[in-house]
Amino acid sequence: MNAEARSSKLVATWLLIGVGMTVIQIALGGITRLTGSGLSITQWDVITGSLPPLNEQQWMAEFDKYRQTPQYHLLNFEFTLRDFKFIFFWEWFHRLWARTLGLVFAFGFVWFLVKKHFKKEMIRPLLILFLLGALQGAIGWIMVASGLTGDAIYVKPTKLALHFIFALGLLCYCFWFALQLLVKKEQVVRNTSLRKWNIAILCVLVIQLLYGALKAGHKAATAAPTWPTINGDWVPDKLMADQPWSLNFIDNKILIHFIHRGLAYILFVLIGIWSVKLFRTKGSMLFEKTKWLPLIIVIAQALLGIITVLTSTGIVPGHWGTFEWMAQLHQLTGMLLLLLIVWTLFIIRRNT
């Protein structure tokens, strides 16, 4: 292996570590949401916030800050210090992992720069990657701040969805950059038709994930804990009950259910048809080894989604049960499906 190839492989490995850490970070965000922990830390201290309270006095100071929030007054007014410590841990760990991720990228960037492993064309994508990471952190604080005023007991669902989608964008950008350094030209497949299907599927998937985040933000699972119908109806009444009508698309829990499920069905059919086309197409060994994965994952994603909805009736506040496990696995497989669709988009190119 020559020096240039070795440098590309090292940088790609570093980026893939970042991909793995970002997946964990998004998963921690899911746990933070499911445990209701997101508003437990009322300030954003980049440096001093790295350490949790270290004594009883510091714990009481943090608890007193939390007790000034609408969530405490309207929802968790019976919380003890022990209850607070539980939700504080998940939000603190979520932020700590984000800081660690930033340090991995920052120190890695400096090390590769000093060792001259970066090629000139790598610098711009890396700077964009850092800007996306900083933007994601800012959006995260804007999201938290939205739940600390007025009568809010949770963060605003639209801001949660924005935070989630930007996290997925950061994840995919980092993954794509790594693939550019790893995948060789002879490993790609030329097929314009398959690529058009791929792009269409990616667009539907992004919107479906967005509505999954809105559904999670509204804690809307229990609004329609039935399947295959939505509370007994295939097309529920009052899909446009709110005024102005445009607000229904971000605030009407039943419409959000309807769109999220409808897009899931469309996605399932599209990937099914596309997979048949993939199976009939011969390509590189890399293509042959991975072309069946999207179909497997979309089946798992659909089953987990159904189970998540059906188990939502068993939600017990403050208790991690079957619903929470299913919801978390549903989110993880959603991320995996997205990465797979990005993967196929990278190795399937237009005909020259």
- Poorly predicted runs of 5 or more residues: none
Please give the number of β-strands. Answer: 2
Structural class: mainly alpha
Reading the helices and strands in chain order gives: HHHHHHEHHHHHHE
Strand order of the largest sheet: 1-2
Q: How would you describe the shape?
A: flat
**Percent range for helical residues?**
55-70%
**Which strand-content bin applies to the residues?**
under 5%
Distance between the termini: 29 Å
Instruction: Using the CA coordinates, give the radius of gyration.
Output: 22 Å
What does this structure look like?
The protein has 2 domains: 1-182, no CATH class; 186-352, no CATH class. The protein is built from 12 helices and 2 strands; from the N terminus they run H-H-H-H-H-H-E-H-H-H-H-H-H-E. A two-stranded parallel ribbon has the order 1-2. With 352 residues, it is mainly α. The protein is flat and about 65 Å long. Helix 6 runs antiparallel to helix 7. Helix content is 69%, strand content 1%. The two termini are 29 Å apart.
List keywords for this structure.
single chain, 352 residues, mainly alpha, two-stranded parallel ribbon, 12 helices, 2 strands, 69% helix
Layout: helices, strands, pairs:
Blueprint: H1 3-34, H2 56-66, H3 70-74, H4 81-114, H5 120-145, H6 157-182, E1 189-190, H7 192-217, H8 248-251, H9 253-280, H10 285-290, H11 293-311, H12 322-347, E2 348-349
Parallel strand pairs: 1-2
Helix pairs in contact: 1-4, 1-6, 1-12, 4-5, 5-6, 6-7, 6-12, 7-9, 7-12, 9-11, 11-12
Task: Give me a quick take on this structure.
With 352 residues, this protein is mainly alpha-helical. It is built from twelve helices and two strands, in the order H-H-H-H-H-H-E-H-H-H-H-H-H-E. The protein has two domains: 1-182, no CATH class; 186-352, no CATH class.
